[in-house]
Design goal:
homodimer, alpha/beta, Rossmann fold, two-stranded antiparallel sheet, 35% helix, 21% strand
Chain lengths: 191, 191
């Protein structure tokens, strides 16, 4: 049975409506662990070894966050910078020398960005205030995963979640769980 | 005379070869101020008012950083998240209510990403280990500037700077300063 790790990055989880709904939907998956980054690391002092150990144990890694400035929040970016290290996530064991066995601790795992964006889809595009299709802003995150040898599942993006009523949010949660279950089933078939 | 603000984001400035060379080249510009983010905010506790005041006083805002995971380092991303606030950099003065006068404190200024990337240009592209042209990874940063009403100058990217010898690094510094001077001259003509 594939194991899921949710790396949850919302600065004010209690004030989050959209992201919290997505987290609740994902929490019902079997064998899921959640790491709330802003709770654990309010001073951004990330326990790299603990994060790497949690990643090792997971098959599906979900980055769950609001979209801030067309990307992940600062702490999740800092998590990329500090946890996905040279000599562990990529490169060679003796990173500085570029020698030793090749290491790619996350190879074969699947990464998935589950995101909550304030702007509706129509605002993403040449005519909208966000200028480009949302997909254009996902390249850096996708390539971060791919460079570490991970599979990349197309992001799940909830647009305008804070404007939805409870029924529409519940529907989004169902759709997210459905996609997560399909993803987990495909991982199970792969192994 | 236009004023330049360099927002410098390198986690270990003393160990930086490439970025330090770019900083030195830019430091020779007239009327330039430097804010070394990792020195000021080792605990990521950004003084938002101070940062906003520095931005107000500048015409050209340079984000100087290494490229980490196809984007800016975590602290600079956190700076975007916390300094470019709703009700100041965009939106309305009473942000929560969406009322009051429209505010865009940075409108008309010019933003420029001066970046040092480890990978050579050939590694950016479908056949390279970084998958896409480097330009594809700049969209989020560009749109961050544009959403705040800023002009966007095409990024200056030094590729493989740590592998360059001193003469080649000096040449890169000259080219950077030349581009900076041309940019400043265009700002002067505009005002």
């Amino acid at each position: 049975m594939p194991r899921t790790l949710i790396v949850h990055a919302h600065p004010r989880p209690a004030q989050s409506v959209a992201t919290r709904g997505l987290l609740l939907a994902l929490s019902e998956l079997p064998d899921v662990a959640v790491r709330p980054l802003y709770d654990r690391y309010p001073d951004f002092d990330i326990d790299v070894a603990a994060e790497q150990q949690a990643l090792r144990e997971a098959d599906l890694i979900i980055w769950l966050s609001p979209v801030y400035w067309y990307s992940v929040p600062g702490l999740l970016k800092h998590w990329f910078d500090t946890v996905l290290t040279h000599g562990w996530a990529y490169g060679h064991a003796h990173a500085a020398q570029g020698t030793g066995p090749a290491t790619q601790a996350l190879a074969g795992k699947t990464a998935w960005w589950v995101a909550s964006a304030g702007g509706l889809p129509a605002t993403y595009g040449p005519a909208g205030e966000h200028g480009r299709p949302f997909a254009d802003y996902t390249y850096a995150i996708e390539q971060t995963a791919r460079f570490c040898g991970m599979h990349w599942a197309p992001p799940f993006v909830l647009h305008g979640g804070h404007r939805l009523d409870a029924a529409a949010r519940a529907e989004a949660g169902h759709e997210l769980r459905r996609q997560a279950q399909a993803l987990l089933a495909s991982l199970e078939r792969r192994t």
